[in-house]
Amino acid sequence: MTTMTDSSVREFKMPDVGEGLTEAEILKWYVQPGDTVTDGQVVCEVETAKAAVELPIPYDGVVRELHFPEGTTVDVGTSIIAVAVGDGAAAAAEPVQEAVADTPATAEAEEPKPEGRQPVLVGYGVSTSSTRRRPRKGAQAPAAAQEASAAIQAEMNGHGPAAPAAPAAPAAPVTGDRPLAKPPVRKLAKDLGVDLATVVPSGPDGIITREDVHAAAAEPATPEPQAAPAAVAPAPSQTAAPASYDTTRETRVPVKGVRKATAAAMVGSAFTAPHVTEFVTVDVTRTMKLVEELKQDKEYAGLRVNPLLLIAKALLVAIKRSPDINASWDEAAQEIVVKHYVNLGIAAATPRGLIVPNIKDAHAKTLPQLAGSLGELVSTAREGKTSPAAMQGGTVTITNVGVFGVDTGTPILNPGESAILAVGAIKLQPWVHKGKVKPRQVTTLALSFDHRLVDGELGSKVLADVAAVLEQPKRLISWA
Question: Which of 373, 421, 416, 368 is nearest to 399 (CA)?
């Protein structure tokens, strides 16, 4: 066996992917021990307090060890993966052959040794024959390992595994002490607050199934439900419950990552900046007609054209007419900082929580350019690929609660900003138009602002200007 020296192993440390972030959670590993990696290849996805980010490895080599399992929060600067480089990369592959040669089943010792890594299921790590660290006691012979792998693959394909000759104990996890489970089962366990390390697996080769997770969540202290006293509940009601019935009464979700940062920011904003919110209801019928016309314009082909685009432009026009609204409060210096640029934030609801990426220098963009930037921002947020840089430096924000059918709200300021505009649902309502009651497209706008630097006159003027542009969109030209 070739011994790798420490100089042949590179430790990749958790980087600071934002400004001053101290930790990140490992969401997913894209490699396993024994995999060959190249400079720039993405090896894992992590979630910081601001966004989910993919991390590329900065050198070529062979993965030697993953120091932390998925779901672990790691401090910045801590090594998360070891990679054998140079001569060490070739040495890292030798235990793959030796693990086969050292198996106790001598009858198979003369069989040709498999080359390279054996196919494995995503999320389960490498196969037994390719593991070079923490050799398992009583490891399976190659033939038995292949049978176990085939059983797992059969289950994934929807076919039940062949009955074994004798019951076998659940296999221990291959990569460290991590329990074996498919990605959907891991997500179910996370949602139900179940630690997979405490679940007894019932699937082939020690795989944890959905039923195992549900059982652990429902009766963690009673492994045998049928042993419960009959007085607890009548037997017919127990057996009549549908398979999808969730017997848990509550679910605990750890507060971390984006949700934790958002919660802290909103509490800080709400109890630091004195909020004032004003409302106005406006007829946006002409704006809705303009949206439909722009969708037919060749200049906007392939671009995202919707009411939010014109609302964003209306706010930019209002800020141009009243630039003092685009400011922040410097507590340390006791100064009001007026920004001569607009980084327009758009609040976006994602599976990981609320994020507010912003369009840099939105004030300098034409309407088609603004449409392109808005479409890219929304698509990136939905894919969970928003970078930390895209959420930094915002000056004013729009939150579109109307997409949920909500009329309006009292939005909380994004930290460091002085104003946020909430847009309600656009509905057909009776409206007095030219002296007659007619059905018109109507919405309600709400503007929250920091009363330390924005007084009632300034806030009212900005909100009124936004409403005026949406009521008469030709002002986009005359006021621009």
Answer: 421
**Residue type at position 188:** L
- What count of residues does the chain have? 480
6-59: per-residue pLDDT in tens?
A: 558 999 998 877 656 788 889 899 999 999 999 989 999 888 766 778 899 998
pLDDT digits (tens, 9 = 90+) for 156-190: 444 444 444 444 444 434 444 577 877 667 777 87
The DSSP code for 314 is H
- For 60-81, letters b (16+ CB in 10 Å) and e give bbbbbbbbbbbbeebebeeebb
Active site includes 451?
Answer: yes
- Give the 3-state secondary structure of residue 76: coil
In which residue are the tokens 């009858």 written? 107
User: What is the maximum span of the chain, computed from C-alpha positions, in angstroms?
Assistant: 98
Contact 100, 139 (CB under 8 A): no
- Amino acid identity for residue 307 in this structure: P
**For the whole model, what pTM was predicted?**
0.56
**pLDDT value at residue 164:** 44
* CB-neighbour burial class of residue 297 (10 A; exposed 0-12, middle 13-18, buried 19+): exposed
User: What are the E-state strand segments in 106-146?
Assistant: none
Please give the Cα distance from 413 to 427 (Å, whole number).
26
Q: Which of 67, 275, 340, 451 is catalytic?
A: 451
